[in-house]
Design brief:
mainly alpha; elongated
């Protein structure tokens, strides 16, 4: 029985390593999210609209995430669909999990639009957490906590008119995560090449 457990664990690690190498730890999505959050910062900092209207623009801008991630996947040569790897669909399911938080987000959007961007940042940050296991990248867990707690702290500290610091902070944290992922993926690639 112990031998079977060791074989299963080794097989699981091989599946995860394949995803880490081919999907490059999801860096395409992180860099796309960085650009989206920089755009969101520009909306909340420079648009002369109400918070409610800025929230609508934020939703619209968020729709650009997938096309941007797709563009980054072509530039960075990442693979979205890995045949014969049963773990691969889990990444998509982990991403869809954030949609379950949207009733909370809609409530904040309608009732407290000044704090909508804080709630959006918290959801964005929190949904990164399980990717720490999926990609075996602790940066995801650390960034999830920092974005979620940091967005709340910023919202407590600044006046609603200065809430634009939340998307700026979120973009910077995502950029740092993206840089870390690129670095760690480069190390993983070298290690795998040397093992062969």
């Amino acid at each position: 029985i112990m031998h079977d457990k060791n074989v299963r664990e080794k097989f699981l690690e091989e599946l995860k390593t394949e995803i880490r190498l081919k999907a490059k730890n999801g860096v395409d999505f992180i860099l796309a999210a960085t650009i989206c959050w920089l755009g969101i910062f520009i909306i909340w900092r420079y648009a002369m609209n109400s918070s409610y209207e800025k929230g609508i623009f934020t939703f619209i801008l968020g729709g650009g995430l997938l096309p941007l991630a797709f563009a980054f996947s072509k530039i960075l040569k990442t693979t979205w669909k890995i045949k014969d790897n049963p773990l691969q669909p889990l990444g998509l399911w982990l991403n869809f999990a954030q949609l379950i938080y949207f009733p909370f987000l809609i409530f904040i959007f309608v009732k407290y639009p000044d704090y909508f961007i804080m709630a959006y940042a918290i959801i964005t940050g929190a949904h990164l957490f399980p990717y720490a296991w999926f990609y075996e990248e602790k940066g995801y867990a650390v960034t999830a906590v920092i974005i979620s707690v940091g967005a709340m702290v910023i919202a407590f500290v600044v006046d609603p008119v200065d809430i634009f610091y939340v998307p700026l902070f979120t973009a910077l944290m995502l950029l740092l995560l993206g840089i870390r992922i690129l670095y760690s993926n480069n190390l993983l690639t070298k290690t795998e090449r040397q093992a062969k």
